[in-house]
Amino acid sequence: MKDSVLYRLIAAGAVVSAATLSISLFVYFEPDTAKGAVEKGGQLVNELALLLPWVEEESAADPDLEDWVSSMEENAGTDSNQAESNVSQADSDTVRELGDISELNMEYSPIPTDAIYSSMLDTSMGPMLYYCQGDRRWADYLYGGADPMKKYGCGPTAVAMLVNSFSPYAGYGVTPVDMAEWAALNGGYAPQGGSYHSLIPNALSAYGLQVEGIQDRSPENVTRLLSEGWVFVALMGKGSLTENGHFVIFTGLTDTGNITIADPNRYENCLKEWDLNQLLSELKENYDSGGPLWGVKMGGAPSP
């Protein structure tokens, strides 16, 4: 009987190990499905927990077996928690460096060709899966059939982050390639120029998000809206920045009064905090399609 119990426990342990390995592989190679992998892994651990009561009598009669069971239960919980932490970016206690505005442009691209990005960023709207336009899975994809994403794809990449994480219609798995294809089919692709500014309101609205061009671009108003759960798509490009313009997302407020951003071109910029006054002074001088600053939320409308 004891051998039978051990055999079943070993088999159950193998299930947990396989689940943990599967989750880790999903996190590394398929971050757009990572959330689903974590949920499935949690379900497997829960199902394993339901199998354990039938060995209680045997384990109670054998102290060594009881210790082994307890250890397996504890490790199963630890593995599940570790898998989820691999998906999330645990930076709540990190002291952030202040960002340098000269690093916020689309031409500078220190991205290794084999890079895959899998991180969750905290935002005013909730956790958001980060995408980088230079990710090896789509860096060389030709936006509009002509322009490589790694240089021209900041618009679809910024939109993909928001749609993938917050759209009521998209679910998980919407990538920058999906949004580039949407842009090409719906008038958002600008040959040799990246994206028309209309991509932002048109694509986000099409996927069920509330988006409004912000007319009051004062630091006070932007800070207020961030505190109320809004994020912003900002078109940068004035002064020291690129002439072509570059889309980034203002994601939230910091304890020091600065803000965090999601930069489709440089992940390192997502780990810093930024002077809001400086960012607003560097918005591109463009006022079509509601730009250069759009407020985004899952419901409601900000005061323009």
Distance between the termini: 72 Å
In oligomeric terms, what are we looking at? Answer: single chain
Q: What is the number of helices? A: 10
Number of strands: 11
Name the helix and strand elements from N-terminus to C-terminus, one letter apiece. Answer: HHHHEEEEHHHEEHEHEEEHE
Overall 3D form: globular
Q: Report the portion of residues in β strands.
A: 5-15%
Helix content: 40-55%
Q: Output the radius of gyration.
A: 23 Å
Cross-sheet strand order for the largest sheet: 7-11-8-9-10
Derived from helix and strand composition plus strand pairing, the structural class reads alpha+beta
Main sheet attributes: strand count, strand direction, barrel closure: 5 strands, antiparallel
Q: Indicate the low-confidence ranges by residue numbers.
A: 19-60, 75-93
Average pLDDT, rounded to a whole number, is 76
What's the arrangement of secondary structure elements?
Layout: H1 2-29, H2 34-51, H3 56-61, H4 63-87, E1 120-121, E2 128-129, E3 142-143, E4 147-148, H5 149-152, H6 154-166, H7 176-185, E5 189-190, E6 194-195, H8 199-206, E7 210-213, H9 219-227, E8 231-236, E9 246-253, E10 259-262, H10 276-281, E11 293-297
Antiparallel strand pairs: 1-2, 3-4, 5-6, 7-11, 8-9, 8-11, 9-10
Structure description:
By secondary structure, the chain is an alpha+beta fold. 42% of the residues lie in helices and 13% in strands. It is built from ten helices and eleven strands. The strands form four sheets. The chain has a five-stranded antiparallel beta sheet with strand order 7-11-8-9-10. It has a two-stranded antiparallel sheet with strand order 1-2. Helix 6 crosses helix 7 (176-185). The radius of gyration is 23 Å and the shape is globular. The N and C termini lie far apart (72 Å). Mean pLDDT is 76; it is low at 19-60 and 75-93.
